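Quick one: structure for this chain?
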Amino acid sequence: MEFYHLLEKITGDNKIHAKWLNTLSFMENAGARKISACEHPNTVSLVQLKHACEEHRHAYYLKKQIGKLGNLLCSTYKQHELLAPVATQQYLHALDIKACRYLQHHFNLTKEELKYAAYLFVTYAIEVRADELYPIYQDVLTKMASKIMVKSIIMEEEGHLEEMIEQLNGFSEDWRTHAEHILQMETELHTRWINAIIDELKPFNHA
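Got it. Here's what it folds into:
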């Protein structure tokens, strides 16, 4: 199923749409927590602090948007309030593990250096995905004349991607070659996540 068409199905039902917003919020929050976990205790950069702050704000913003669909919808991140909860919860964690294994194999890094490298490459991959996902979502919201909007997130994610590229340029001259491998890992996990959502929504499609 084409992603645009999937989002039309999701936004057409308030309860499912609330779960989608909550799922995005969960992932933004998980990303913020991963970024914070990768911080060096003494030398954390202003950019890294900014990213963690903004990802937390995205999680909050998306969660707050749910109120426009119904006050009693998706108040927690419990499994029954997420779409494809297992795939959702595994997505970023699995990417982090795969990226760490790859980077450890290709670079001679200390534990702290590996954490920072993983932050760079995993965040880059996620920002590339966000730059694709959120504009499509906003197009669907606009078409549906929805009260929900994600334009502010789109602008910040574009800035994040530029900042990640700048940091990666300082990490390795050959970073793009390695980033392609990380992007392939992310694509596989993203496909698994989307397919899990499609499978979960099949009963609704036939209702």
